Amino acid sequence: MKNLLMILGVTFILGACNNIVFDEAESDESKTVASSEESTDAAEAAEENAVEEKEADVEEAVQEEEWIAYEDMEQPSVQYIKDISPNDLALEIEKNQYDYPVVNEENLENYVQRFDLDSDGNEEEIKILMDGTYSGEHASFILAIYDHRGNPKYAEYLYNAESVEKPMPILTVAELTGDGFLEIVIDSTRGYGYMEGNGDQSISRLVYGFDAYTGNFRQLPAIGSYYDIVWQEDVAVQIDERVSGLSDILNYREKDNESVDLMIEHGLLDDYDSRIGQRLVGESRRVYPEKAMKLNEADEHFSLAVVDVIHDIPDLSIISKNLYQWNETYEWFEVVGSNFTSLDDDTFSFKKPLYTPAKFNGTFGTGDKAFEDYMGSWQMVIDGKLQSRYLDIEEEVIYETERDLKDYEQVIEREITIEDYVYKEETGQLIPRGVMKPFLDQPYNKEYQNLFTLLEIDNEVMLMDQYGHLYVEEGNGDREPEEDGWVYSAEAEDVDSIEEVDQPVSIETSIDVLSPDFMNEYFAGPEPYTFDGIEEGMSQTEVENLLGLPEEYYAVEGAEFAVYDNLAILYSQYFPTRSGAFEHINPDENFVTDTEVILRVPHEEVVAAYGEPTLSYEEYSELGPGPGRDQTIYDHTRGNGYAIYIEVGLSGTAWLMTKDEEWDLLDED
């Protein structure tokens, strides 16, 4: 790494005095005095020089520990996709390709496309895949890029697909950044699901491009937005987007006079300040790309026109069509035009040039910000409203935390060990790079890279990440680690106002499902297998007070199990309530009705331990239809009234094991 600090050297020039006449008697004494003074000056100069050099070395060492310069980032020598070293998920797909099929063979053109992405004369392949190993609430989809020989080079989970029937198709492939590689844009129209109210609505979740500094593809950063919406009259609002500086007035009477008259007639607009004004900001936002386009034929690369649903409630939706262009200096997609009134054409009411460092620093007062200003605790904010996500940035580690503001015990935390921080002096941006500890919904692609930018809005310092999410410095009070038994109080001013909560009771949820002891107990009779400490009739609230949030959810027909290691719990309302799903269910009135066993081991290991089944899942699939997924059935004591069913996934993993009535079709064999 090249050193940015300039080591200042001090050069001392000793001059000689000419044309001075000394008396001969005074000559020797004068020389002695002069020599002594020169020695003292030289010693002082040497000491001063040594101190300055030592300070420079210390300052240089501190800087070297904290960050490296952007221009000193090492780049892998990758010019073509065939030279890319595949990431973790791509390697997994290459190893177990049958577990990751293309999502829809009928509309193949939506999910498989071929383009020469790197201009080497060969066409690469882009696919949308389904993760056949995933057993959660919704289907899990993957974007995968293959070189022209069919080798997967990049793969990443998509963020906002909702169900197996509606995977996200490939919208377009176009040159958006001017780097010589084509970018891939994934469609996220309303019909394909969306994220709401939690910050994941960024277009950077949907645009993928090559990154020279990682030597592979990644989600490309995008600038964020901060909408300030003020009601002017009973049917008009002033909309100011504080980050781009674009604004407009939306008059509902001009938009839809009939609907406005109906709302006034029914009294819906009489008290707009309290009823609607409070709902319009920071609660619901969706974004979905429309198309890539060129404003002028002479443009070297495309822009991206995106429809941003700022707020969506019946008859009062606020929708903006925004035009994004790539800012090479800041390395993000940036809004350069908007239209709040019409989505029917490609015109934009307001336009602005891309930010330069001088313009950005002048607008947001960031010229005096430095590396250390990024350190600390930050809380996400959408349009002025605090959200339940946090960033804790330290010199050696970053924690990304999601917690339910209504229930502080519901916490998801991602831990990133920092390898280095890269500081862009020209723009004042910080790039953290490191390794993320694997967690449940992200077992692959542990490499971590982000892009942080500081800005001020209304004299409040904010941090923006690569997805455009905005964070403010966390308020007064300490947020101690959850495992220490402390929870954060948003109103806390000192330690005395932080509440202590009960420590969870230890309940063994992990068992050796292939051990003889377990098999002898489970196969002994029709009685259900029970877990000590979890009893029928306990409420979901009581269970989660003991065990915390489930690791995952296992869907069955018409219901869903909450899963903890090998324990699967079914509640009386058939689904466990949680943030963002089934929130209408009261957890205090959702009671345990059944506990089952999750095996989570390869099917061949089950057969090796349990013996040959009465009916293998391959035979079951051919014989069907039967209850649920393809299952292996153990019913060697035919006629005793029960059988053991083991559900098997596409990857050959054995999952849910239950005891149920004997299957009549077995008698027909």
TrEMBL record:
Composition bias (Acidic residues) maps to: 38-60
Q: Where is this region: Disordered?
A: 27-60
Q: Where does the source fall among the domains of life? A: Bacteria
Q: What is this protein called?
A: Lipoprotein
